[in-house]
Amino acid sequence: MDHDERPPDTEASYLFLHSTAEELAQLQPEDMLQAVLEERTLLQVIIGILNASDKDPILRLVAADLVYTQALRATENQAAEAVPATYDIKRVSLRLGLSPTQVRTAYEQLNAIGGVHIIARQFPRRREQQPLSLDGTSTDRQ
């Protein structure tokens, strides 16, 4: 078997990540086992990231959030192929209680060590500011 080939029952997926306790209680034993294995795998990855004591705590937090967010996206998309994801640094910083600079730095560190691949960065366009005069008259040029 090639390295890229997996038996169909071992595909990495997160079909049951959004399931409620009531939904899980209704599952067949095979599906329940799959749900438990999915949760365990995700938890092991996040614990592994958080236990990397030689790395910066902010980097570990951002990496764990990135893994969890990707797992959530996988439950929504269920795409067979990897699709580039877009992350809003401001939104991530608000969710984690970090500054945007800290999140951006952590993403750049993850990119440097091969944890993520940053394809492109987009920054919002700056709005042109109109100069204000102190005497209250408009400074618009015509």
Nearest-integer average pLDDT: 75
Structural class: mainly alpha
Quote the distance from N terminus to C terminus: 73 Å
Oligomeric form:
single chain
User: Biggest sheet, open or closed, and with what strands and sense?
Assistant: none
Shape: elongated
From the alpha carbons, calculate the radius of gyration and give it in angstroms: 22 Å
Give me the count of strands.
Answer: 0
- The topology string of helices and strands comes to HHHHH
**Proportion of strand residues:** under 5%
Low-pLDDT windows of residues: 1-11
Helix content: 40-55%
Count of helical regions: 5
Please, could you describe this protein's structure?
The chain has helices spanning 21-25, 29-50, 57-77, 89-96, 100-112. It has 142 residues and is mostly helical. The protein is elongated. Mean pLDDT is 75; it is low at 1-11.
Summary, kept brief:
With 142 residues, the protein is mainly α. It has helices at residues 21-25, 29-50, 57-77, 89-96, 100-112.
Relevant terms:
142 residues; elongated; disordered N terminus
